[in-house]
Specification:
The complex is a heterodimer of chains A (327) and B (269). With 327 residues, chain A is mainly alpha-helical. Chain A contains 15 helices and no strands. Chain B has 269 residues and is α/β, with parallel strands linked by helices. Helices cover 35% and strands 26% of the residues of chain B. In chain B, the strands form three sheets. In chain B, strands 8-9-10-3-11-12 form a six-stranded mixed sheet, sandwiched between helices. Chain B has a four-stranded antiparallel sheet with strand order 2-1-4-5, with helices on one face. In chain B, strands 6-7 form a two-stranded antiparallel sheet. Classes of the chains: A mainly alpha (327), B alpha/beta (269). The complex binds adenosine-5'-triphosphate and magnesium ion. The site of adenosine-5'-triphosphate (ATP) has 11 residues of chain B, from strand 2 and helix 1.
Chain lengths: 327, 269
């Protein structure tokens, strides 16, 4: 109550009513942009070569939708799943105490980051030509398999392809995923190295093994650093599925749009359709990326989400805490 | 903060000799820099040993050697009769496997200057993680025990909080509970209060005093002379990688024999 008295005793100063700073630059920028936008719209509307109605009529054709689902969406998902898993393995090998593993991992990232994806896809697509004589996939796999026994899962996927079923989809998937793993390995390595050394030290002092520390302590924290660039990689991957025409693999969005354009001699409207499709798909990914980043930021800073989690956990464990308090 | 932090049998003297820690001529170098130059130390079960010394004298390094976070270059360390990091067979030392080293560490709790709590886990998860992962306890059992431990370090109402939402003193008390959840025979403290604001030091020292009273064997690196005097059973003063002086804390602090001890105490008192 004493504080009340002292504040009322001294007269409260009147609220500030100041003239805000003017920003003439902003208004000028808005004017310029408005003019540019109007010019752009004018361009789109008045040039009838855009053939808007043709574009809308054709961009949802069944083969295009099938290509979008299989060659673009499913391929992106598969290539990223495979690429991220293999990338994590390569990153862990790179940080291993075993010098051989380190060299193998380094060689891997070197090769697959050095060769352009378009070239990789062409190579994998035409591997069938050399298949009987050169077994490209196998030695690499067994090497990884021997040195790093854990990832049998990866091996099985590769073992599958080393048979004679190197279809367009599989060849494309291999090319994209192997190349992606090279980039992901670097991203994951940076993420792991960003985690404070004191974390693994505290975990070892508790008696956890190296694997347990990696899985339970280091990787979850590295995620915060790994997720944003992985989101970017996913977006890049979605766009790079358009390179599948080098395999060639035809059940893919851009291949199909391009085919319709060439067949109907209306190439440009179909390319514009491609622009819209990729804009649409990428936007969905951006939304997903936002939520993922928010999820892995938990425990850092007093975010709204952290507070919500706090409440649910407190409710969950309320019984345990109460029992302890009773004694 | 009432009740035992340590189950009754954990503090009972082990090994025939009654020695919990025995270090013999421990040497440790980082490259050309020799940090430990032959440390001998004995800590009996149930004893609180305070380690003092100027910065860079090798206190942290020695503590880390005790649970094999650092490999020693010469000498031997036994915890409760077990040789740390090695197996002696036919007069030869064999390095222990990672798994065996990890198993040895489970018996030794460690508390760090910078807490090192796991920031992505809640307070409760921090404490439950190791016992459950290392199959020391069933999940429900571990949660109950963790909640009890946290209650006894005065954090019964913070189970769902993340470390980032706690004060330094609270974090350090969680770290102590986390180490205790593994039911260690020995606790190592590396300057547990020196990263804390002065008004938070007391709450952590109180927890440590309770722990000592419950019979836990502790080695504490600290600059808190008051704590050493009140709780310590022995005091070891290190400087330049060697033990300069040791004895009863009250006697050493009141009447240091060695010049270097005198100079150091004059500075921190
Ligand atoms: N990993 C390491 N590599 C190289 N040198 C190290 C390493 N760890 C410690 N040292 C060196 O060993 C010496 C002793 O370090 P230590 O941390 O044990 O000292 P301390 O007595 O704990 O000091 P403080 O009171 O400052 O914590 C220091 O000179 C330090 O630079
Ligand atoms: Mg230190």
């Amino acid at each position: 109550m004493t504080t009340d008295e002292t504040t009322t005793a001294r007269a409260r100063p009147e609220p500030i009513k100041a003239v805000p700073v003017r920003h003439p630059g902003r208004w000028a920028a808005i004017a310029v942009l408005a003019v540019l936008a109007a010019m752009f719209v004018h361009l789109l509307v008045t040039n009838d070569k855009f053939k808007w109605s043709f574009m809308v009529d054709n961009m949802f054709r069944p083969p295009i939708i099938e290509g979008l689902l299989r060659g673009t969406v499913v391929m992106t998902i598969c290539a990223m799943l495979l690429g991220v898993s293999l990338g994590v393995v390569v990153a862990i090998m790179r940080l291993s105490t075993n010098p051989i593993l380190r060299v193998v991992a380094w060689l891997y990232t070197w090769v697959f980051r050095a060769v352009p994806r378009l070239v990789l896809l062409a190579v994998f697509g035409n591997l069938g030509i050399l298949w009987s004589r050169i077994e490209f996939g196998v030695p690499f796999d067994t090497q990884i398999g021997q040195l790093f026994g854990i990832d049998n899962l990866q091996l099985r996927v590769f073992g599958f392809t080393s048979r004679d079923v190197l279809t367009g989809f599989v060849a494309g998937l291999l090319g994209l995923a192997l190349s992606e793993a090279g980039y992901m390995a670097e991203i994951v390595r940076a993420g792991i190295q960003s985690v404070d050394e004191g974390q693994s030290e505290a975990a070892s002092a508790l008696g956890m093994s190296r694997g347990q520390i990696l899985r339970r302590i280091v990787l979850p924290q590295a995620m915060r650093v790994i997720i944003p660039p992985t989101g970017n990689e996913t977006i890049a991957m979605l766009k790079d599925t358009s390179l599948l025409l080098a395999v060639p693999y035809s059940v893919e969005l851009f291949f199909q749009l391009d085919a319709v354009g060439k067949r109907t001699f209306q190439i440009f409207p179909m390319y514009v359709a491609a622009v819209f499709w990729y804009l649409f798909l990428t936007s969905i990914l951006l939304v997903g990326q936002y939520f993922l980043e928010r999820h892995f930021a938990k425990g850092y800073g007093r975010t709204e989400r952290a507070r919500i989690r706090l409440r649910t956990i407190a409710a969950e464990t309320g019984g345990g805490g109460g029992a302890g308090g009773g004694q | 903060m009432t009740g035992q932090l340590v189950p009754a049998q954990a503090g009972a003297p082990a090994a025939e000799s009654g020695l919990m820690v025995r270090a013999e001529q421990v040497h440790k170098s980082f490259g050309p820099l020799e940090v430990l130059k032959g440390i001998d130390l004995e800590v009996r079960a149930g004893e609180v040993c305070c380690l003092l010394g100027p910065s860079g004298s090798g206190k942290s390094t020695f503590l880390r050697c005790i649970n094999h976070l650092e490999k020693i270059n010469a000498g031997r360390i036994w915890v409760d009769g077990d040789l740390i990091g090695y197996r002696e067979r036919g007069g030869k030392l064999h390095e222990l496997r990672d798994k065996e080293v990890a198993a040895q560490r489970q018996a030794v709790g460690m508390v760090f200057q910078r807490f090192n709590l796991f920031p992505h886990m809640t307070v409760l998860q921090n404490v439950v993680e190791a016992p459950v992962l290392l199959r020391r306890a069933k999940k429900a059992e571990a949660r109950d025990r963790a909640a009890q431990l946290l209650d006894r370090v005065g954090l019964g109402d913070k189970l769902g909080a993340y470390p980032g939402q706690l004060s330094g003193g609270q974090q350090q008390r969680v770290a102590i509970a986390r180490a205790l959840a593994m039911q260690p025979k020995l606790m190592l403290f590396d300057e547990p209060t020196s990263a804390l604001d002065p008004e938070l030091v007391g709450e952590v020292l109180d927890v440590m005093k309770n722990l000592a009273r419950d019979g836990m064997t502790m080695i504490v690196v600290t600059h808190e002379i008051g704590f050493a005097r009140e709780v310590g059973d022995s005091l070891v003063f290190m400087d330049g990688g060697v033990v300069v002086e040791q004895g009863n804390p009250r006697e050493v602090i009141a009447a240091p024999k060695h010049e270097r001890t005198k100079a150091f105490l004059a500075k921190v008192l």
